[in-house]
Amino acid sequence: MAPTLPRTDLDLFSDDVLADPYPVYADLRAQASAIFLERHGAWAIPRYDGVREALSNWRVFSSARGVALNDAMNSAQQGTVLASDPPEHRALRSVLSEQLAPRGLQRLRGDLERSATQLVDALVERDSFDAVTDLAQVFPLAVVADLVGIPDSVRNRLLSWADASFTAFGPLNDRTRKSWEARKEMFRWCRSVRASELAPGSMGRAIFEAADAGIIDHASCAPLLSAYTTAGIDTTVHALSHAVLMFAENPDQWDLVRDGDVDVLDAFDEVLRHDSPVQAFTRVTTTSVDFEDVTVPAGERVVLLFGSGNRDERHYTDPDRFDVTRKPSDHLSFGRGVHSCAGQGLARMEASAVLSALARRVRRWHVGAPVRHVNNVLRGLASLPVEQVELA
């Protein structure tokens, strides 16, 4: 008699699960290393080792058929960095590799630190502000828009475009369907914008220059522009706002950062591990794969649960506890292998600038009730009122 495959009719993308996914993830990890999601026709990979292996092995876990959980988004993503494998992926990613490499980013450090200091100084003088709309959204939006060279005429639409793009990576539910109009608007702009409308020396201009040089096809310009415009905004927004929440709820951890006992980037790694901004992407197996106690056949779509792997008790001690001394540099939030986040160096530099500026000025946070933002793939906050700050 054939063994019974682990399966569940759980909807991972229901409002209730998205509002608090971690108990659900714990149940999935306890059940098996791979579980078939009947509602979505895909396998969930909830444990750290399984997610890490899949991220590290593009030959077995392919991105070429897209990384979303619906066919429409996977078709729309063809020709992008996310929905490709080497050698195509290597060529697409090379376009901006110089600008996003550590040496290329160093020229930004001084400007980022000055901008972060100015923003934080202005906010703490007000005493009360919203950590999402006044801080976490403002800083990454300005940074990415400047780097990509986005004209002022569309900057106020970038946040809604980014949010729609990420939620569309989920299943074809109502949330995804409601995102189509914003995505269509974004792609209309990406297809119609001319290189001359993007700032000279910007990443956006570099995409068109690469096409003119024959490094990539001109057809790839619009998808690449949309990807680099949206990918670096919301993820950093949610990481920064979650950092404020966690440090407000755990003042002893904030003291460790303020006093210099823990490096600010080590603390940021713990923020990313504790609540991954991107909770899941998918891959397709090219051959049958053994996940400990379960074999997933070839040609199956698997949902890699970054957020679950980052809370796996098999890998992290007391994983639900926020502990900045943990130094979890091996967290899954930036991915692994060829598809590791191209903009992680920029995200870390932004976080360092903002958290360092806050550490110099703020001794204690007093926050109101956080309002959760619901997105199929992203986990973050819509609002976090900072009702009072005690200055350092």
TrEMBL record:
InterPro entries: Cyt_P450, Cyt_P450_B, Cyt_P450_CS, Cyt_P450_sf. It comes from the Bacteria. Belongs to the cytochrome P450 family. CDD domains: CYP199A2-like (cd11037). Keywords: Heme, Iron, Metal-binding, Monooxygenase, Oxidoreductase. This is Cytochrome P450. It holds the Pfam family p450.
